Amino acid sequence: MAHFSIAIHGGAGTITPASMTPELEVKYKTALREALEVGAAILAQGGSALDAVQHTVVALEDTPLFNAGRGSVFTKHGKHEMDAAIMCGKTLQAGAVAGVYSIKNPVNLARAIIENSDHVFMSGYGAEEFARRQNIAFAPEEYFFDALRYKQWGEVRDSDVFMLDHTAGDEKFGTVGAVAMDLQGNLASATSTGGMTNKNYNRIGDTPVIGAGTYANNHTCAVSCTGHGEYFLRAVVAYDVSCLMEYKGLSLQDACDTVVKKKLVQLGGEGGLIAVDNEGNIAMPFNSEGMYRGCMNSRSEPYIAIYKDKMPDSMSSKLQQKV
């Protein structure tokens, strides 16, 4: 019987119960659940995995809780530079955008690149000019203003220090993402981020780089990453998971654990990822204290978690039993 699977993330890092108020935890979990249900509804109605991950990420971009879209952090110059990518596992088509300032939902622009251009990766003013031609929604600067983000920036804006979306004692990487398998067995992934607080020189991380922070291939899996982007770039994390499955025959969980809990740790990289394989199994490993995450399939209730001690990182065994 055909079934679907979907997983999402909202960032990883030093996220502990001690650093979270009960009220804030409820807000995060509610936002994750609502975004997850957006994608699940599309999949349940026979929609494509590509549509599901796009609209799920839009929902996450629209909340200021996460470092993407509306909640994006401030750059060295007090602006917002956003990156996003989306990839179709069936065709290997991909769209990516980097360094855009005023796009309301960067993932929508990435999808438009797939649909209406011969390119994969656009950046800066050129990407925004393409967005105007595609009638992609823009938003004024005040739409992206968030008091907490502004406070974070204010603490370091007169220095050369950059922050990976954290305040002291609360290191969290707020990149958002989604992966899905639809009822036709097709895979897709999407990722979106506001980057680093106080970042300079138009720095770009792994999120929009196909194979580093975002990847999907029907033969193996779909992956979306969150963490310290420089390390994910060097390790080509998303594609490495796929390669371990394709060339070494590893299971999704083993491939993810090898990359996140061994290779990244050896490099000194912190973060995690979400992934789904072509059988609908899901893995959500991370090597940090916590990761905002959630998943479900066509026969399961939503699973929402933040900390390591809540439930196992992977629901693959549960999914295998239910489908």
Automatic annotation (TrEMBL):
Tree of life domain: Bacteria
Q: State the CDD domains in the record.
A: Asparaginase_2
Q: Which GO BP terms sit in this record?
A: proteolysis
Task: Write out the GO MF terms.
Answer: hydrolase activity, acting on carbon-nitrogen (but not peptide) bonds, in linear amides; peptidase activity
Q: Where is the active site?
A: T175
Binding of substrate, residues: R203, I204, G205, D206, T226, G227, H228, G229
One Pfam family per UniProt: Asparaginase_2
Q: Where is this site: Cleavage?
A: G174, T175
Its protein name is Isoaspartyl peptidase
Q: Per the record's keyword annotation, is Protease included, yes or no?
A: yes
Has UniProt tagged this entry with the keyword Cell membrane?
Answer: no
